[in-house]
Hints:
The protein is of the alpha/beta class. The protein is built from 16 helices and 10 strands. The chain has a single domain, classed as Alpha-Beta Barrel (TIM Barrel), CATH 3.20.20. Helix 1 (2-21) crosses helix 16 (346-353) and helix 6 runs antiparallel to helix 8. The protein starts with a helix and ends in a 17-residue tail after the last helix.
Amino acid sequence: MKNLAKLIVNLIKAYILLPLKLRNKQDVWVIMYHRVLPKNSSAYEREEPGMVVCPETLNMHLDFFKKHFDVQGLDDALNHAAPSNTLKPKLVITFDDGWSDNFSHALPILKKHNTPSTIYLVSQMIGTNRTFWPNIILAMVEAGESARIVKTFKLEPTVPATISQREFGAHIINLMKCYSDEEIWSTFERENWIESAKDDDRMLSWNEVIEMQHSNLVEIGSHTRNHYRLSKDLPKNVIENEITQSVIDIETKLTSACKHFCYPNGDTCPSAIEIVNASFHTSVTTRKGINRFPIQPHNLKRIGVFDDISDTHLKIACKALRVEGKSRHSISDFAAVTVIVISIGADQIYRLRNGSSNGCVNHTGTPTYP
């Protein structure tokens, strides 16, 4: 009964309250994606859950966004002189890193919906077989080498015994972020762990980038040269090179200016912020939230979406309402619940659920290494 009540409240929030809450046309929502992969692909099964949506989910998201938001490109959305033509808040689509699946799976869906977006490239990885260190870790976890990783990096995992392999990989990656990128890569080199990207984990080619740009739906931004986290511990000359040279890399290949920047892992420091603010029109972080008026063009907040939390209309609607900060239920909410129950019945509400349960279960047990 408790689960039914929760489901009913979520339905009210999703289909009645959300359209009423999203009325501030001066707000700008920036959505963060990384990868778009079919669920039956090996890359999907291997990837961190928080990094991926399947094409069906992306298609559903764009339908949802077009209904509830004024979807615009980054420049238009931040133009204070051009407010939304509707009562809806503005929304911007972004993709991080520059994965080849953005071309093969995301671009056709963007074209279908005529939806603009910005893709942030790690410029020295485009057109190469290089891969990110987290993807090397994920491949090792998949190969049963978790214990070796834990021992080498002296990690202390604190995870449920029943955690999935990909969730464990994500947990290990998060623990490893206490090390600098230099420390991680030097350890990989010493242990002979450095590998080329798997075919389904490759980055975009420059020809694919150019074709995406020519679609007039994709603007290209910078995500540094090598995806080094721009923390205060990184030497200033390296920070400057990562930022400014990435612009040269991109503008040398393309016919337009590189005006937008994305901080790797969301990490910033005063030196990086100073250089980015002087070099780009806008910059985005991984800080979660909505950008409220008056909007500053740098250090923009974003909202990450991925399959596990947003693969149904109900989930994405409830996610939007939670971000909006309107999660408390009033008496009017429950009055509306009563009306719906009387009108359509509890059995029909269960059908509306359509797989919306998040499947969360509290587990206990001794940590194991998948």
